[in-house]
Amino acid sequence: MRRRSDNSRSAGVWSERSYCVGLSSGHDYLVQIGFPVFSYSCCPTGPQRLDPRDPDALEIAHFGDAIVSSKDVVFADTDGVLFVPQDRAEEILRTATAIHQTESKQAKAIREGKKLQKQFELDEYLRKRADDSNYSFRQHLRKIGGAMEE
Q1: Which of 128, 126, 125 shows the shortest CA–CA distance to 144?
Q2: What are the extents of the domains in the chain?
Q3: How far apart are alpha carbons 61 and 66 in whole angstroms?
Q4: How do residues 136-150 score in pLDDT, each as one tens digit?
């Protein structure tokens, strides 16, 4: 994940498999060699100062406003990073799997030539919405089995 941040704190997290989290330099090279990088922003010159280490630096990591510890699970891909308490990891994985299955089904239908407008039965939604201004697109997706997060 690459996004600009005004937060001056950056953090590194490591375990058996190393990760670079925070500001990074040499991003393209790191990605090329398969080193996982989730970055607030690129810093081509590298660090310009050495700040004192927080006393809890080996116990927790700061990632923006999030505080992550060994009691958390980290899910990451090119869309972003999600920190989850360990006791909710299975629930999150079930939800993510359901979303992935729905998105995969929709993507397959698109590849086969079926537009999202047809998959989502948009004309039917607009007719119902015209009759009932409280009828939401979320309700419609639930009804036709197109809601991803449920």
Answers
A1: 125
A2: 20-70, 90-144
A3: 8
A4: 999 998 888 877 665
